[in-house]
Amino acid sequence: MDLALRFPMQTSKGANGARGKLAIIIGAGPAGLTAAYELLVRTNIKPVVLEKTQQLGGISTTINYKGNRMDIGGHRFFSKSDRVMEWWLRMLPLQQIDRPNQIISYQNQVRVVHGDSHASRPDASDQVMLIRPRKSRIYFQKKFFDYPLKLNGETVLKLGLVKTLRIALSYFMTLLFPIKPEKSLEDFFINRFGRELYKTFFQSYTEKVWGRSCGEISAEWGAQRIKGLSIKETLRHSLKHALGKKEDLRQKNIETSLIEQFMYPKYGPGQMWEEVARKIRELGGEILTGHNVDRIYVEGNEIRAVGTANWENSARQHLTADYVFSTMPVKELVRALDMNVPTVTLEISDGLLYRDFITVGLLLKKLIVADNGKGNNQLINDNWIYIQEPHVRVGRLQIYNNWSPYLVEDSKKIWVGLEYFCNESDSLWRMADLDLIRLATKEMTQMGFIEKSDVIDANVVRMPKSYPAYFGTYSRFEELKLFLDKFENLFLLGRNGMHKYNNQDHSMLTAMTAVDNIVAGRIDKSNIWNVNTEEEYHETKSPSRPVHQPRAA
């Protein structure tokens, strides 16, 4: 049965002058939920969020398995955007640190954490944002190397003098004879690190992530994800660190991969998006889960309605819309358009590729891996460990205890997540949960992290289309973008909505910018596409100013 869903017209005038308008938002991830909240607090446009699963937060959700929480892919809460940082802290207040009133400076500004706020103490309230140390390392030949690499005596000792000299010679040869033009991701890595260092520390992990040679991947991925990071930048940061460390949360002038502390919700990233969803409903917005959008109705240069199928009972709904915000995969969006899509557009859309993601959570009695000379059975303090070992399939390891101790039900246990990258067509994706758990246990044992007998429990989570790929027909994506941008009331947002490897802060900024455009009456969408293209996210630097920590809204 096809049900029509309409909403009563509102009479109050919003910030953009619109009256009683409705926005359909496809997807309840960071971009979709941010768009809904921004519409509610800045306009009188009513948002209806349609989420095909039963979970909120998209890839930023948190999976609760018997009280042990899994952060899918790991989500550090930091941004070079002041707007995003302040938005997060309006949702979850920052934890109290050491003193009744703790002053924290970051990105040339100051925040005061008020000690009289009971809600800012992690032991007294669940609604709190923790401050967590950042530590990631590479595991290579059963040794830990700092990530990003530190060019110091310890690294030389672990690599050996001959290997270090080869790396140095390779890098200087690259300085003299860089690869031009820089077409592939392999070219990108070699130009910044030299061929020897690339093959040692980057090639194996990156090819696990994407399932193909770095020579087949666009250099644009590296330009977006690691931007200015290089041996030169690593040396500069190491020197600055040696001269004096600044406890700086915002760290706007530091490359993303070099940031040393971050904010994190007490119960993982999903807690943030559950809180945002609560506020959206409180303000009059709607969030409908289990609603898969499979039809998008077009009239001229506008989207007029969407059709959904309920996954539980197959009931259909037809929702009219004044605006449509889409975070669904672009290829699914194009296939859902109720119009004669040009053949060339379909060809590009259908040729877009993705990588899918599996996390195997293992609950352990202990870890036995040695950490830089420390005795066994010590809990190493990494958030992530990049596995640069070609003989195992796992690509990365999370230690959830170190993201937040509150992610683990029993503080005496160790809760880890092994991350596997694959395609939905792969045998790994189709493998039974029990077989995946056996594989994860075997590889952890093989690498020397655990003893098999120390595994207490396990859980498997699959996340399709986690990573939009920069190969397939991606080189022709500009043509597809031009086709979709002609629909004036359609806004593509977020990682899959834009087929752009965005972090959650970038995804949020695309949503905020889209609402900015509606408020301003701007039709051109280039500013949305430019988010995460310029390093400062289009902000201008301003003099240092005191800012009190925003209270939760």
Write the layout of secondary structure elements.
Layout: E1 2-5, E2 22-26, H1 30-42, E3 46-51, E4 62-65, E5 68-71, H2 82-91, E6 101-106, E7 109-114, E8 129-133, E9 136-140, E10 143-147, H3 153-159, H4 161-176, H5 185-193, H6 195-201, H7 203-210, H8 219-225, H9 231-243, E11 261-265, H10 269-282, E12 286-289, E13 291-299, E14 302-310, E15 316-320, E16 323-326, H11 330-336, E17 337-338, H12 343-350, E18 354-364, E19 384-387, E20 396-399, H13 400-403, E21 414-422, H14 427-430, H15 433-446, E22 455-468, H16 477-485, E23 490-492, H17 494-497, H18 504-520, H19 526-529, E24 546-548
Parallel strand pairs: 1-15, 2-3, 2-16, 3-12, 7-24, 9-19, 13-17, 16-23
Antiparallel strand pairs: 4-5, 6-7, 8-11, 9-10, 13-14, 14-15, 18-21, 18-22, 19-20, 20-21
Helix pairs in contact: 1-10, 1-18, 4-5, 5-6, 5-8, 11-12
Please describe what this structure looks like.
The chain has 553 residues and is α/β, with parallel strands linked by helices. The chain folds into 3 domains: 190 residues, FAD/NAD(P)-binding domain; 108 residues, Orthogonal Bundle (protoporphyrinogen ix oxidase, domain 3), CATH 1.10.3110; 115 residues, Protoporphyrinogen oxidase, mitochondrial, domain 2 (Polyamine Oxidase, Chain A, domain 2). The strands form 6 sheets. It has a 7-stranded mixed β-sheet with strand order 10-9-19-20-21-18-22. Strand 6 and strand 7 form a beta hairpin. Helix 1 packs parallel to helix 10. It is globular and about 70 Å long.
